[in-house]
Amino acid sequence: MYALVENNSVTQFLPTLPTTWENISGLHLASLAELQAWGWLPVVTTETIPANDEVRDTDEVTIEAERVVVVQRVRAKNKEETDLDWEVLRIERDKRLRDTDWWGVSDRTMTVKQAQYRSDLRNFPAVVNIADWPSVTWPTEPA
Questions:
Q1: Which residues are CB-neighbours of 44 under 8 A, at least 6 positions away?
Q2: From the CB of residue 35, how many other CB atoms can be counted at a distance below 10 Å?
Q3: pTM
Q4: CA gap 67, 2 in Å, rounded
Q5: d(CA 47, CA 1)
Q6: Rounded Cα–Cα distance for residues 141 and 117 (Å)
Q7: Which residue in 20, 44, 90, 106 has a CA-CA distance of 20 to 30 Å to 69?
Q8: How confident is the model at residue 140 (pLDDT cuts 50, 70, 90)?
């Protein structure tokens, strides 16, 4: 990845250098010294994977003499983001319940395992730690 630095500020990030761009044909063939003279610096990124209770935050960008350093930052989820996780969890739970509603029609007898599965789904949000979202372990649907 490369960054274009103009007036001591990054104005553009590119995953690769283009073969033709703004009257500079063959930019990808230029030496590192030529690229630096034109303001293109290689980017070094420190990737941070957010935990389940975190989200990506604004990256920290530092311009050095011969490179641009990007540190990906994370922050704890705020209440609205956590509430959204719960809402997504409830929507998935409700879908799983709807998919098995037919087990309870009047001309059919629900098995004990099916009844337990539906009970586990109804109780599911109460036994889940939202910090584990989205890698929660759902109850196993009986065969």
A1: 67, 68, 69, 70
A2: 18
A3: 0.57
A4: 9
A5: 13
A6: 6
A7: 20
A8: very high
- Local confidence band at 27 (pLDDT 50, 70, 90 cut-offs): low
| Residue showing tokens 């989200």 | 55
Q: What single letter denotes the amino acid at residue 108?
A: R
Please check the confidence at residue 126 and state whether its pLDDT lies above 90: no
* Residues in contact with 59: Cβ distance below 8 Å, sequence separation at least 6, in sequence order: 70, 71, 72, 73
Residue in this structure with the two tokens 């957010």, named with its chain if needed = 50
Backbone angles phi, psi at 9, to 5 degrees: -145, 140
Confidence of residue 18 (pLDDT cuts 50, 70, 90): low
Could you tell me which residue, 115 or 30, shows the higher pLDDT?
115
Q: Both tokens of residue 136? A: 């929660």
Concatenated DSSP letters for 52-111? TTEEE-PPEEEE-SS-EEEE--EEE--HHHHHHHHHHHHHHHHHHHHHTGGGG-TTS---
